[in-house]
Amino acid sequence: MKLLDLVFPSEAERLARTGSPLLALRLFAGVGLMLHGRSKIQNPFGWMGPEAVTPGVFQALAAVAEFFGGLAWVLGLLTPIASLGVLCTMLVAIATHLGRGDPFVGKGGWELASLYATIAVLFGAGGPGRFSVDAWLGRAVRGSEPGAPQS
After folding, report:
1. HEC secondary structure over the chain
2. Of the chain's two ends, which shows fewer C-beta atoms within 10 Å, N or C?
3. For the segment 98-108, what is each residue's pLDDT rounded down to a tens digit?
4. What total number of domains does the chain contain?
5. Average pLDDT over residues 79-93
6. pTM of the model
């Protein structure tokens, strides 16, 4: 393989490569998101504490979005739906940080929430890649339709 082909791959080569990087991103971001939501899912309606003004149902939605959204990313299962939940949760987190005047990077920063939001947009718009349960299910469904192209 020439260096030029590595830097400027053909469309077919670029599409063939998308599986592995997306898998790596899904695994890393998904496990991170699950770990981030692990303590929240253990007390879903009260993880913000008794003084929180956020209703318990919204705390539970955030806990579910983080923990199970991360699990969905790891598996590549229902990825667009999981990504929508993660995106909504991260946008609220970003708005909360901005409302408090927190910096982008540093203690109390909103950098991590913005990173997860960006990843959620990527997976929501582009899908989880070819090494995913979603891709496997898609191939199985399309393969069972008469006249469907075989991949």
Report:
1. CCHHHHHCCCHHHHHHHCHHHHHHHHHHHHHHHHHHHHHHHHCCCCCCCCCCCCCHHHHHHHHHHHHHHHHHHHHCCCHHHHHHHHHHHHHHHHHHHHHHCCCCCCCCCCHHHHHHHHHHHHHHHHCCCCCCHHHHHHHHHHHHCCCCCCC
2. N
3. 999 999 998 88
4. 1
5. 97
6. 0.83
